[in-house]
Amino acid sequence: MNKAREASSAIRSVEELSKQRSPVHDLSPLSKFFLTMVYIVTVASFNKYDLTGLFAMILLPLLGYALSGIQVTLCFRKLKVILPFILLVGIANPFMDREIMYTVGRLHISFGMISMLTLMLKGIYSLMASFLLVSTTPVDELCKSLRKIHVPSMIVSLLLLTYRYVSMFLDEVATMSESYALRAPGQKGIAFGTWGTFLGQLIVRSSYKANRNYESMILRGFKGEFFYCDRRFSGLSWLFILVLTGICVFMRLINLPVLLGSVFVR
To answer: How many C-beta atoms lie closer than 10 Å to residue 33's C-beta?
Structure first.
């Protein structure tokens, strides 16, 4: 299986995850979107040296993954391309801020190292929360949530169509790559001299398919905005919002590891 086919399969596997049933899947899409934003904003608001306070925030996404039945490791496997960029965030901090913050034996820990680790954790936590949202909420329902909070219909429709077009584009890349490999057995990759022809044919073929899909949408009454199935807020969704928002605020105001340490270590 070539890389384009693998990428397309990965997108479809996430869509299949979003159609499963669990306490998290059954919640209102808007409540999940709202709480994901609350969680990301809360994580981002931590001070760059508040590493211990940030540690406790891992509990919320872990709880979400446990209730949804989705493995945490799946998030990192699906998004392994993004992880290196997240880990590179703040990589220069230890060289720019060398003032010593802690000394453990002969090991000196600088403010720059702490701020680097804090930035990395913020990125990883945000990634985990975002993947949990898309893997428990179908893209149609997520777009409906955006329309409920009055995001312009043009932006929402563009987001949905782009998402659908990416899958179709990857399928076309995979088909053309496999056809090229059958016509050039034993050749590794696509020859440099055929890149222009390959890219041109790819744009023509994918544009043709996209135009056919658009014409089908017009014949079915599309007038610039999609009509989504509406799911009302349930009592469980309201409870979910209140409890999780309260926990986020509590963890932001109270350093939980320090609090537990002062209780159990005396």
So the answer is: 19
Beta strands in the chain (DSSP E): 100-104, 107-110
Residue type, 22: S
- Mark 57-89 as b/e (b = at least 16 C-beta within 10 Å): beebbeebbeebebeeeebeebeeeebeebeee
- Domains of the chain, by residue range, sit at 1-15+139-228, 20-137+231-259
Cα gap 5→226, rounded to integer Å: 28
Model pTM score: 0.81
Handedness of CA 184, 190, 191, 195 (dihedral sign): positive
* Tens-digit pLDDT profile for residues 115-168: 888 888 888 899 899 999 988 888 888 888 888 788 887 888 888 888 888 888
**Please, what sign has the CA dihedral across residues 202, 208, 209, 211?**
positive
Tokens of 258: 């320090």
- DSSP-derived secondary structure for 11-38: HHHHHHHHTS-STTTTS-HHHHHHHHHH
